[in-house]
Every structure is written in structure tokens, then in C-alpha cells.
Specification:
3 helices; three-stranded mixed beta sheet; 36% strand; alpha+beta; three-stranded antiparallel beta sheet
Length: 135
């Protein structure tokens, strides 16, 4: 398992390094919390992790069952709450292209609910997931 190293860059920014690959991400505080909003904020990364995890878990299932998810996209949105300041809701819209049977649609919905990131988040955090199947 790869370690993650985070260094404070000052001015409400961090540089995060995935030590196994060397990939780096810079974060910035959001504009509504004293930042410039020029990079992902830490709360953006939580939202991103949930969407990416759902896509990865569904793609694993799809590969095992001969379903092509190429072109599927996810749009995520976070809704912040106050007292305490936290993510109150993550809204996720999944857009699928192609033909899917009713059984495949049902299975993809079920698989999305098994995402380890989603299961790791606090139960008070609302996760609203909408599926859109486009031909």
C-alpha cells in the first residue's frame, strides 16, 4: 500500500505526493473559506474520491460481466454545512452511454452502493446518487 505525504506550501495550500508513483496534487482552500480556489480543496478530494471509487467498483463489475462502461461519466457536487463546517451532502450523477438491460441497470446500482469510500464516510453525510442511462 502506498503512503501519502503532505507538505504545507503556505498560503492555505498543500502538496500531496503518492509515494509509490510520485504523482503530486496541490490543494487550496476554497474561496468561501479564505482560499483562492485555484486547485482542488481537501473537501473536493473527498467528493472526488467517492465518485472515482464508485466508477472503479462499477468498472470492475462490468469487466467481469462483459459490460462496456467506456464513456460513462460521473458529475459530483458537494454541499457544505455549517456548525460544524463539514460536507453535508455529496450529489452524484452517473451518465451511462449505450444499451443496458434492466438487470444490468439494477446490478450497477447495487454495485455502486458497495464503494469502500462511501462505506467509510460518516452516516450523517447524505450521499445522493442518480443514474442516467442514455442511448
Amino acid at each position: 500500500m502506498a503512503a501519502i505525504e503532505t507538505i504545507c506550501l503556505g498560503n492555505l495550500r498543500t502538496e500531496v505526493t503518492h509515494t509509490q508513483s510520485g504523482t503530486k496534487i496541490v490543494t487550496d482552500a476554497p474561496t468561501d473559506n479564505k482560499g483562492k480556489g485555484e486547485y482542488f480543496s481537501p473537501t473536493d478530494l473527498v467528493t472526488t474520491a467517492l465518485g472515482s471509487c464508485i466508477m472503479t467498483i462499477m468498472d470492475m463489475f462490468a469487466q467481469e460481466h462483459g459490460i462496456d462502461l467506456t464513456g460513462t461519466r460521473i458529475v459530483t457536487e458537494k454541499v457544505m454545512s455549517s456548525n460544524p463546517r463539514r460536507i453535508g451532502e455529496i450529489k452524484i450523477d452517473l451518465y451511462f452511454k449505450g444499451e443496458f438491460t434492466d438487470k444490468q441497470k439494477t446490478m450497477l446500482r447495487r454495485v455502486a452502493d458497495t464503494c469502500p469510500v462511501g462505506k467509510s464516510l460518516h452516516p450523517d453525510l447524505i450521499q445522493t446518487i442518480n443514474f442516467h442511462f442514455e442511448k
